[in-house]
Amino acid sequence: MNIKIHHIGFLLLPQAQLLDFAGPSDVFNTANQLITLTSAIAPIHYQIHLISGTIDKKVMTSSGISVNCDYTIYDKDIAIDTLLIAGSKADLDSEYDTTVLHWIKRIQPHLSRIGSVCIGAFLLAKTGLLHNKKATTHWQFAQQLKESYPSIEVTYDHFYIKDNNTYTSGGITSGIDLALALVEEDSGHTLASDVSRYLVVNLKRINTQELYSTLVPSDIELTPLVKKVKQYITDRLAQQAVSIIELAEMANMSERNFARVFKKESGMTPGIFNDCVRIENAKRLLESSDYTITEIATMVGYASDNVFRKAFIRLVTATPMHYRASFRSSTIDS
C-alpha cells in the first residue's frame, strides 16, 4: 500500500495557547509512532508544520514559552492538507492583521479540511468561512462568538463539530478530541483507539463541554445590579424561596421594572438566575465535601433532593452523582 504524507499545519499567532497545538500534535505524532512500532497498515502518515501568523518565525505563547515555527504566512508554496488555527489570547479583542485573513482565505480552497481549536474559532469566523455553518468554541466565549457572528450556529455542548470539511473544537484540550477524531476519520477506529490508550485519554468523552461550564459568570463580568442580587441570594442559600418581590425591594425598584432590567443585564430571568446561583454553589459542595445529596439540597435551599436533582439535571445536564464523580476533589479520599 502506498502511504500518503498528510501535511498538518498549525497557524500560530502571538499569545497562542500552547496546549492548543501541542496536544493535537502529540496525537498525530503518536499515530505515526504506533504505525511504525506495530507495522500497522495505515494509508496516512502525518507531517506537522508550525506556521507563524507574523513575519517572524518565533512566536511567544500565552504561557511565556517561545516556539520556533517552520514557516510564516509570508513563505510561498507551503504544503498543507489540513490547517488548524490555534487559539490566541489576543483573539477576543483583536481586529487581526488583514494579511492573516487573506492568507487563510487564499489557501482554504486547496485544503482537504480547515479547523480551529478553542478561541481560534474567532479568527476562522472573521474570515467568513464559518458563515451559515455549525461551530463551537470554548464554552466561556460561545455567547460572544454567537453575538459577534449571528450567521454561525454556535453551540458549546460538543467538544468538536464537523460541518462538511470545516471543523471547530471547544476549550483547549478539546483539540485533542478533534485530533483523535481526524485520525479515526483518516485511518479507522483501531488506530485512533490505540492512540487514545497510549496517551491515556478517552477516544470519545462521554461528557459534554456543557458539564465544564459555569452557570454564573465571575463577579468581574457582572453589572452592579446582578452582582448585588447574586450576593443577596448567596447570603440566603438555605432559604427556600427568595421572591422577585423581595429582590426588587432590595434593589429599590418596582417588581416589573426590576424583572425587565435584570433580564437585560444578566440575560436570565430572576427565577432562573436564582436557580443558577444555588446550583453553582451545590456544584462546589459536590466537588469539595462529603455531604450527602440530601444535605446539599437543603444547604442550597431546595425542599427535597428530588426537586434539587431535577433542577441540577436541567441546568448542568448531568445528575449530581455523575457531576461529583467527574469533579470530586483529589484530596478528599486521602
From TrEMBL:
PANTHER family attached to this UniProt entry: ARAC-FAMILY TRANSCRIPTIONAL REGULATOR, HTH-TYPE TRANSCRIPTIONAL REGULATOR RV1931C
Highest taxon of the lineage: Bacteria
Record bears the keyword Transcription regulation: yes
Signal sequence coordinates: none
Organism: Myroides marinus
Record's protein name: AraC family transcriptional regulator
InterPro entries: Class_I_gatase-like (IPR029062), DJ-1/PfpI (IPR002818), Homeodomain-like_sf (IPR009057), HTH_AraC (IPR018060), INH-QAR (IPR052158)
PROSITE patterns: HTH_ARAC_FAMILY_2
Annotated coiled-coil segments of the chain: none
